[in-house]
Specification:
Elements lengths: L17 H11 L11 H12 L4 H11 L3 H10 L12 E6 L2 H5 L2 H11 L13 E6 L11 E3 L2 E4 L3 H12 L7 E2 L16 H5 L1
Parallel strand pairs: 1-2, 4-5
Antiparallel strand pairs: 1-3, 3-4
Helix pairs in contact: 2-3, 3-4, 6-7
Length: about 200
């Protein structure tokens, strides 16, 4: 595993928004007394959603809320690759699945689009700071390969042209519909259901 370290430039402080603070306080109550530390991952995730990335002040704020040592929360944030330790694109951070099924279906061409449209290297911001990308391991939609994940949503059955359209949509400030980009339902065959057709009619 590669070393994951905090970005050298950090904001001066972090405070949950009132809505996110109420959410976090409620989440903590879902765990038994003395076990509140179990809420660390959802709280870090919400902090990342608010800020766009997982900052050092956010790590300390979450630790304080849960009564944890800073180093314990730091260990969690640096272990799980779902936490971005450096700024990412404000409009889209594109995670390209590079596992074998996606590679066999053209993920390498999607990476080339990211290099051309966003930045030459993973984890670099585009010139306008609105986009970034990285290659990741299995995102769990192998039947609809190749695919990318942008923040919470997955976009599947991609071609270079379809990824270009996605990036253009995000650049215009619109939210493309997640899921298959060729119209298939879930991971059904491209031609449509082959079994249980009578249920589809009911």
């Amino acid at each position: 595993m590669s070393n994951r370290r905090l970005h050298p430039e950090q904001p001066s402080h972090f405070v949950f928004s009132p809505q996110n603070l109420a959410w976090a306080q409620d989440i903590i109550t879902h765990y038994p007394a003395g076990k509140q530390a179990a809420a660390v991952i959802p709280l870090l995730w919400r902090a990342q959603e608010q800020e766009g990335w997982c900052t050092e002040p956010a790590i300390r704020a979450v630790a304080d809320m849960l009564g944890m040592a800073y180093i314990r929360v730091y260990e969690i944030a640096t272990f799980y690759t779902m936490f971005q330790l450096a700024p990412v694109g404000t409009l889209a951070h594109v995670q390209v699945c590079g596992t074998t099924p996606c590679l066999l279906r053209g993920a390498d061409t999607l990476i080339e689009i990211c290099k051309a449209r966003i930045a030459g290297q993973a984890h670099e911001l585009s010139a306008d700071g609105k986009f970034s990308w990285e290659e990741v391991e299995c995102l769990g939609s192998c039947a609809n390969a190749p695919m990318v994940q942008i923040f919470k949503d997955t976009y599947e059955d991609l071609t270079p042209e379809l990824l270009e359209k996605l990036l253009e949509a995000f650049a215009k400030g619109t939210q493309p519909k997640p899921g298959s980009q060729i119209g298939r339902t879930a991971s059904c065959p491209k031609s449509g259901p082959t079994t249980l057709k009578e249920l589809a009619k009911s």
